[in-house]
Design a protein that fits this description.
With 402 residues, the chain is α/β, with parallel strands linked by helices. The chain folds into two domains: 151 residues, FAD/NAD(P)-binding domain; 145 residues, 3-Layer(bba) Sandwich (FAD/NAD(P)-binding domain). Helices cover 32% and strands 28% of the residues. The protein has nine helices and 28 strands. A hairpin with a 4-residue loop joins strand 24 and strand 25. Helix 1 packs parallel to helix 8 and helix 4 packs parallel to helix 5.
Length: 402
């Protein structure tokens, strides 16, 4: 019996699993993930800010596993050997495969900035998001005792999509944090430091400014055009003059790193031809030198012919990749030719709090409460594609009307 191994139970991995499990073909699937649960990575900022619980954005992987066809292993991938068709796991186990789906997800990218790994809070999985929220509450409680103003300062490093959504959630969580500190919500100071001046390039400037202007109105301080040079314990060092290299320092006891991500280190460890953990795949999503190995999600790079740049790594494209990889494997099992991957973005919507969002659906700009409604509908659809009806009913976002 043929063996299909799926590495990673994120958006792409679980979507591929659903497609493969629905087939009546005779083959076995082994799914590997280092957690026993799937989490909606697009909602990590809400857990970090404390506006959603970790339980709301997670569900047990076993809930979506067909035990008659699939074996789930809670283990960590350490290396892939494509020549011997084996996968090495942290536990010491070795898996063999006929077809492989690599969907190992992302890790934080510090770009070699000194102190970023040691002194800034990362937000890359459930545990790290919970750690951010615990840290924020701890600093608020400390302020109530010490009256150290730096305990009330929260700095978000990076004004990308994730950073902006985190800032929106932090605005929303200010009242609860302020209650712990014993201060007024506006006394909690929110900062964002970003190297570039043109924020949110995935949107047109007017739409991007709409979101930024709202955050500014809500009290967020943006320091743009200020490349971060170092993260010290309790402060961020950033450049203020490119010609002289002059820097300034912002003291804060809560520093959250959202400047970027790269694909899993396993890709480099396994000698894939990669850049920042991402492999430029063939047109059918396979590794260029191994037609039985599919690389999808955050570890995959697919060229957008219109922009001549790789597509951004989003949940939307990850789900599409997982679906496509699953269907191509079924074609190969039947002796049929694989099909080249095609993708057309349905748009993108950024939330800034639970009741406000902005973005593009198709080619239509959306703002405010209607955009928030659409954002939640998108999240529910994503949940359906990985978890099915059961998970949507138990974890879905149905607070459309506020």
């Amino acid at each position: 019996m043929k063996e299909v191994v799926i590495l990673g139970a994120g958006y792409a991995g679980l979507r591929a699993l659903h497609v493969l499990q629905a087939s009546k073909e005779a083959f076995h699937i082994t799914l590997v993930d280092r957690h026993s649960y799937h989490y909606e990575s697009t909602s990590l900022h809400e857990v970090a800010a404390g506006t959603q619980s970790k339980e709301k954005i997670t569900y047990d992987i076993q809930d979506v596993v067909d035990s008659q066809k699939t074996t789930f292993l809670e283990d960590e991938v350490t290396k892939i050997n494509r020549d011997s068709k084996t996968v090495h796991l942290k536990s010491g186990k070795e898996l063999t495969y006929d077809y492989l789906v690599v969907s190992l997800g992302f890790q934080s990218e510090t770009f070699g900035i000194p102190g970023a790994s040691e002194n800034a809070l990362q937000m890359v999985d459930i545990d790290s998001a919970v750690k951010v929220n615990d840290h924020l509450k701890e600093k608020m409680a400390e302020y109530a005792q010490t009256k150290n103003e730096d305990d009330l300062k929260i700095v978000v490093c990076g004004a990308g999509f994730t950073g902006i959504e985190l800032l929106g959630a932090l605005v929303e969580s200010r009242p609860s944090l302020a209650k712990i500190a014993g201060v007024k919500p506006e006394e909690i100071q929110l900062y964002c430091i970003e190297a570039v001046t043109r924020l949110l390039p995935m949107f047109d400037e007017k739409l991007g400014n709409y979101g930024i202007d709202h955050l500014v109105d809500w009290g967020v301080h943006f320091l743009t055009g200020k490349p971060i040079k170092e993260i010290k314990p309790g402060s961020v060092v950033y450049q203020v003059d490119k010609e002289t290299g002059a820097t300034e320092e912002l003291a804060a006891q809560s520093i959250i790193w959202t400047t970027g991500v790269s694909g899993s280190h396993v890709m480099a460890d396994s000698d894939f031809e990669q850049r920042r953990g991402r492999v430029m795949v063939s047109s059918d999503l396979t590794d260029p030198s191994h037609s039985e190995v599919y690389i999808v999600g955050d570890v995959s790079a697919v060229m957008d012919k219109e922009s001549n740049r790789p597509y951004p790594t989003t949940a939307q494209i990850a789900l599409k990749m997982g679906d496509w990889a699953g269907k191509n494997i079924l074609r190969q099992l039947k002796g049929e030719a694989t099909q080249p991957f095609t993708f057309k973005s349905l748009g993108s919507v950024a939330s800034i709090g639970n009741t406000h969002a902005f973005g593009v659906v198709g080619k239509t700009p959306v703002k405010g409460y209607p955009a928030s409604f659409i954002k939640k509908a998108i999240m529910d659809r994503s949940l359906f594609e990985t978890g099915g009806v059961k998970e949507v009913l138990s974890k879905g976002r149905f607070d459309f009307y506020h």
